[in-house]
Amino acid sequence: MITRRRSLKLAGAAGLAAAGAQKARASTKPDVLVLGAGLAGLYAALTLEQAGLKVQILEGSHRVGGRCMTAYDLPGQPELGASQIGQMYARVRAMAAKYGVKLVAPPANMSSETHQLPMAISLNQRPVITKPWAQSPQNPLQGAERDLLPNLIYPTYVNKNQPLTSLYDWYDPKFAKYDTQSLHQFMAAHGASPAAIGLSDYDVYADTTAGWSALDALRKNFYYGWEAQHGMFDTAAGGTSAIPDAMAAHLATPVLFNKFAHHITQDKSGVAVSCEDGSTYQASFLLCTIPFSVLRGITLDTPLPAAQRRAINEMDYSKIVSVWVKPTRNYWEEDGLPIFLWSNGPQERMFAVPSRVQTAENLSFYVRGEHAMRISGMTDQAAFHYLTENLAEIRPSTRGALELLRVQSWPDYKYNRGGYAYFKPGQINDFGQSLALPAGRIHFAGEHTAKLTTGMEGACESGERAAIEILGV
Which residues are bridge partners to 403 per DSSP? Predict the structure, then answer.
């Protein structure tokens, strides 16, 4: 078992090991180019710089942080991406402490896996259920399942039948059999009704339970359960973006922005990256931290193992669209129902998220999978109209009560092309051990390559691992 003290030691060990691993090499060009200024790229760059190397980060967008995205320009300054910093996020916490970013407990009314708030429920675009869920005639579940709220169905079946006992187990060959199953098949094998599995399709990383490796689901749920045992998560007092902003501010060489790569090549002497703006950069090594959903659109002119090439071309990312809105009146006081809505209709979830900077909560639609792809590509106003019209069908009090603030469509976001990386059935066995292997002078990092952790900590873990690889060459 990894304790908090052990985890913190691991986080600091890489810096000490890296500092003595290799002396700086005098050169007019960088020793290392890093593609992507998310947490993985920033963490790796700081580690490499600490060891004396010259590092240049090329970032395709105009900002650092990747999926850490605090909307400072919106009322309430909501988080459009990452927000929860677990007690065992040792590397993230170390960065926050080192660079003066204050972490604070979340508001008492923040919903989480361990703190469920009152929830309105609608199925199949019918009006919101007013009776208790367990007693509602619209509840399609069977037996003891009827007591499970829709968003707790799949975690309940996974956690009740969890075979993993450590963070390392998910890539132990003895658990490989779970990768041959989808989450759908795993739940069915443990007694879940078809109705329960059908509702679970609206609460998973993948598009559906049938499209998600049971082993990947077991791994992620084990990790977050392990995290929860160590206490409630924290948040950054100044917004999650404050952490990557602070990390970037302490780089010896500033990040270069609007450098979207379109061609990568290497030879015996080094690597070259050509960008869309016509610029080209060279270095002895390249660390690629960008999501595979983006990398597959870039020409990577170097031999790769077949399994690694499949990983780049086939690894999928969750389809998530969040639409942030402002209420023009308190419609929940009119109908007496909770603000938080769960539905399997086009509008899916409606969240009320406490704000750090105002008393009013931030409201947003949170749409996944097939429903997200229906609005992906729409104009912001068209997406807003589509969602609010569907919401008004099941909750009439909302008609005319919402004003559009922002649409964040991760599938459409050029620099990510999706939310969280996940494995489809069979993919861990196929390329799980190959996707992060160095390819000559090219190394890979990013949350999708993390071995033990996930989320923001997984990104930092991967950056640490890749930096050590480069320093060991």
Answer: 326
Give the tens place of pLDDT for each residue, 12-71.
Answer: 444 434 444 443 444 479 999 999 999 999 999 999 999 999 999 999 999 999 999 999
Question: Any residues with CB less than 8 A from the CB of 436 and at least 6 apart, and which?
Answer: 444, 445, 449, 462, 465, 466
Q: Tell me the pTM.
A: 0.93
Alpha-carbon span 158 to 173, nearest angstrom:
20
Q: Which positions ≥6 away from 60 have C-beta within 8 Å? A: 36, 258, 259, 260, 261, 290, 294, 414, 415
d(CA 402, CA 399): 8
